[in-house]
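*** Residues and shapes ***
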Amino acid sequence: MLLNRIQYTPPKSKTAYPFNLPWQASFRDLTLSQPVTILTGDNGSGKSTLLNAIAANYNAILMSGASLDEDPEYQNSRALARCLKLTWQYRTKAGFFFRADDFISFIRATRGRIKYAQTQLEQLAPDSLERLPYLNTLSAIHHLYQVDLDKLSHGQAFLALFRARLRPNALYLLDEPESPLTPENQLSLLALLHDAVENGSQFIISTHSPILMAYPNAQLLALGDTLAPTQYDQIEHVAFLRHFLDDPQRFIYHLLND
């Protein structure tokens, strides 16, 4: 384990976001007992808020390589982060903080770099030394990902990125990483996470995916009126999806007729 414990000291005034979430009233201390911690809960329960604050507390690096420290989008996260105390067994800066929106921006930017380099090469003479920086850019991207990201689907590019970027002994904070993935590819992501765990890495994941929630021996935490341990079969998303798949037409009938 890298990160062992998260403690919360609420501010004196806690009537406005990000200090007015129901679970914060009783939350003071959380021990991370497994290398994979899963945050579950409904939309608006504060899963992403907590994950953002953890990331801001130790200035985690975004997947793009940027810092959270000056990003105005994380102003609320930094306010909550100041109320958190993180206890480490081994403090690391290896790893990254991932959000689905950041991934889309990152892939677009990477594909833009590829296209720009290719365009410049087409305009330069084959023996021109000016080609070297663009060739180096394409070589570095290909060496890291081993595939042509500009030719992959969104989900394929996502898995290629994680396959290339997961490292041993690193902490990864993932906010809804299932977003671009089919159920089959979510299983592929689970396999990648497991390989990283076997090499000493740790994950804290906010998700709505029953597939990711099923990671063996994951520490499952439900955010609602409290922040408390839960069991897989007790998670609302799991129970709802199971009932829906058992009889989808019953749900559709009542929804559309109502």
The chain has a mean pLDDT of 85. Strands lie at 3-8, 29-31, 36-40, 84-88, 97-99, 171-175, 202-206, 219-223, 227-229. The domain at 3-106+169-257 is CATH 3.40.50.300 (Rossmann fold).
